[in-house]
Amino acid sequence: MKTTIKITALVFAILFMTSTAVKAQTENTKSESKTMKTYVIEREMPGAGMLTPEQLKGASQTSCTVLTEIGPKIQWMHSYVTGNKIYCVYKAENEKLILDHAKKAGFPANKVSEVVTMISPETAKQ
Known about the structure:
This protein is α+β, with helices and mostly antiparallel strands and 126 residues long. Helices cover 54% and strands 22% of the residues. It has 4 helices and 4 strands. The chain has helices spanning 2-35, 53-70, 95-105, 121-125; strands at residues 37-44, 74-81, 85-92, 111-114. The protein has a 4-stranded antiparallel beta sheet. The chain starts with a helix and ends with a helix.
């Protein structure tokens, strides 16, 4: 009987701890999504599509170094390299952080656009 009570108490304790952790994680995600916006940065860079893997690696390293200096309020998600432009997707608290990053890294930021929403082929099915 005592063993059953102990096991039941342990199960309730684990369930409580798990639900508390999930709630905290959900609240953190909600607060991050409220403060971090998604931006697309258009960088005019003639010949971007001709950059070598080594040059792209160097640019990536420069970007990451500056991101570390600026802090956690800005994140680089990924970039698309085309013939004469690079389109970068960032999360940041505001546009000023995007522009600060570009200036410190020595990259152009010809156009910065905040993403309002996303669509995909899945949108057609909803």
